[in-house]
Amino acid sequence: MYKDGGRPPVDPRIYFRMHYLYFTRPEISSFRQLEEQLKDPKNQAWHNFIGTPDIKKVPVHSSLSHFRTKVRVEDFYAILFDLIAQALKLTDFLQPTLTGIDSRPVWANVNGYKKKRCTCPDQSKCNCEKTYSDPDATCGVQRTKANQNKFFIGYRKHSIVCPSPKGPIVLFSIILPNDTADIKVMLPLIEIMKKIEGLKVEYLVADLGYFDADDQREALVKHDVAVVTEIKKNTVIPNHCSPEGKPECWEGHALVFDGFDKDTYTALFRGDDSKCAACPLQGTCEKQFGYSFTDTPFFHGPVPQGSLLQERMLNFRKQVELAFAQESNQLTSVMKHKKVPVRQTKRVEKFFIMREWSSYRCRARHKASSTGFF
Question: In whole angstroms, what is the distance from residue 30 CA to residue 197 CA?
């Protein structure tokens, strides 16, 4: 990363362990404070952990910023994906068969209104654009929440969340401008999931922000991932379905889900025996029904609308929202008003990648302390 010459390099493992302390120790609220704590003779255990028993060899806080600047985002993702591949080998640590997708706002580290930050002698006459102190941050609209402003300045974090015994855990995230629609992010996130060795996702639970027939069709046909959502109020419901989206027979009796054929992408249903016994069409009805998923992906997928399985999956999506709220609250210890302490898109993305792999290591310490994990 550097040209020949200069000072002796610092082992990158030291920087990674310093970041691990920053993200896992609640008493550390800044990188400057982290350096002060490491130079305190009382914290000899921390010196040994990062690999610098000599206090004089503790890197300065500015070198942490240079480290995150020099390392590419792709390298951080490669490290994160390797940690996920290791975590998947642990018994009952991650349960990736069912995952969730959601987004949340990320407040940027900005002050005041937009200003011109050019070097023109007369800024009142130049055509330079006004920007915030974080040039990549923009003003966006968040969902209506209690005691929160409708507008915010920053980015939007789109994440894939996986169940674990200790609650939902974020697999990985991408940082995009806050005006990016959720529906445009689902397929790219699914393609990123395919890069993780050993990760096999069958169901992806999403809210109505990811409600799109073409994307759900492509997710299952091309990527073998079934997207589970509710239906919107203005969705056109097929004639053979009830207002709740449940298939019915000619007599209006609800059908029973009988499996999904992935070879033909057909949802199979059968008649309810308790209803068929007294049905006047019993002699002419075949009691077997098949509906094409490619024609109506919202109603005839691997998980039918209104089923008990769908309800349990949607309950997991609510847990994902709670996990996001908890993550947002944890940023309060780092910066007031839940702001991220770095600026610009690439640095913000690296910040959250390192935060996520630190979370993996923290949760896996008690799970596999003697197996050589990490």
Answer: 34
Dump pLDDT digits (tens) for 208-244.
888 888 888 899 989 888 888 888 888 888 888 888 8
pLDDT top residue among 89 and 364: 89
Q: Which residues pair with 339 in a beta bridge?
A: 107
| Positive or negative: CA dihedral 57, 63, 64, 69 | negative
CA distances from 361 to 118, 193, 199, 356, 372 (A): 43, 20, 18, 9, 12
The pair of structure tokens assigned to 258 is: 């009988």
Which own/partner pairs from 294-299 qualify as long-range (CB within 8 Å, at least 24 positions apart)? 294/217, 294/221, 294/265, 296/238, 297/213, 297/216, 297/217, 297/220, 298/211, 298/213, 298/216, 298/229, 298/231, 298/235, 298/245, 299/231, 299/237, 299/238, 299/241, 299/245, 299/247
How does residue 364 score in pLDDT terms, banded at 50, 70 and 90? low
C-alpha closest to that of 253 among 277, 222, 229: 277
Amino acid residing at 276: C
The pLDDT of residue 285 is above 80:
no
Question: Is 13:71 a contact under the CB 8 Å cutoff?
Answer: no
Please give the Cα distance from 373 to 71 (Å, whole number). Answer: 24
The DSSP secondary-structure symbol of 365 reads T
Q: Can you tell me the mean pLDDT for 22-32?
A: 83
* pLDDT tens-digit series, residues 164-184: 777 788 888 889 888 888 888
112, 247, 302 from 306: Cα distances, Å: 48, 10, 12
Asked if residue 190 lies in contact with residue 223, where contact means CB atoms within 8 angstroms, the answer is yes
The secondary structure of residue 269, as a DSSP letter, is: E
Query: CA triplet 240, 224, 90: central angle to 5 degrees?
Result: 125
| pTM (2 d.p.) | 0.82
d(CA 207, CA 209): 5
Contacts of 172 (CB under 8 A, 6+ apart): 77, 80, 81, 84, 159, 160, 192, 353, 356
